[in-house]
Amino acid sequence: MLSIETFVVVSVIKIVIALFVLLTAVAYTVWLERKVVGHIQNRWGPTRVGPFGLLQPLADGIKFIFKEDLTPPHVYKPLYIAAPMIALICALTSIAVIPIGNWVTIGGVHTPLQITDLNIGLLIILGITSLGVYGVALAGWSSNSKYSLLGGLRASAQMVSYEVSLGLSLIGVLIVAGSFSLRDIVDGQGGHFWGFIPKWNIFYGGQFVAFFIYLISAYAETNRVPFDLPEAESELVAGYHTEYSAMKFAMFFMAEYANMITVACVASLLFLGGWHGPVFGPPILQAILPVFWFVLRVFGFLFVYIWVRGTLPRFRYDQLMAFGWKFLLPLAIANLVITALVVAWRA
Amino acid sequence: MPLAPAVTDLQQLKTHPAIAKLLAWNSSAVLAAKFDREEMTIYIERSWLREACVLLRDDTDCPFNFLSDVTCVDWFPSEPRFEVVYQLLSIPKKERVRLKVRLEGSAPAIDTVTSVWPAANYFEREVFDLFGIRFTGHPYMRRLLMPEDWEGHPLRKDYPVEGYR
Amino acid sequence: MLHLTLFLIFGAICVAGAVNLLVQRHPINSALSLVVVMGSLAGEYLLLGAEFVAAIQVIIYAGAIMVLFVFVIMLLNAGEEERAGGSRVALLLGVPGMTIGSLLMAWVLLERSGTQSVMMGALPGPPKIIGWLLFHDFLLPFEVTSVLVLIAIMGAVVLASHPEPSQPRKKVD
Amino acid sequence: MVPLSYYLILSGVLFACGVVGFLIKRNIITIFISIELMLNGVNLSFVAFAAQWHALSGQVFVFFVMVVAAAEAAVGLAIIIALYRTRDTLNVDRVNLLKL
Amino acid sequence: MAHLTTMPELEPGQDRTMILNMGPQHPSTHGVLRVILEIDGENVVRIMPDIGYLHTGIEKTCEAKFYQQVVPLTDRIDYLCPLTNNLCYVLAVEKLLGLEIPPKAQWMRVMLNELTRINSHLVWLGTHAMDIGALTVFLYCFREREDILRLFEAVSGQRMMTSYFRIGGLALEPPLGFFEQTGKFADRFPAKVDEYENLLTGNPIWMMRTKGVAKLAAEDAIALGASGPTLRGSGVDFDLRRDMPYSGYENFKFRVPVAQDGDVFSRYMCRVRELRESIGIVQQALQGMPEGPIKADAPRVVLPDREKMKTQMEALIYHFKIITEGFAVPEGEVYQAVESPRGEMGYYVVSDGTAKPYRVHMRAACLANMQTLPKMCEGRLLADVIAAIGSIDIVLGEIDR
Question: Is pTM beyond 0.90 here?
Answer without folding.
Answer: no
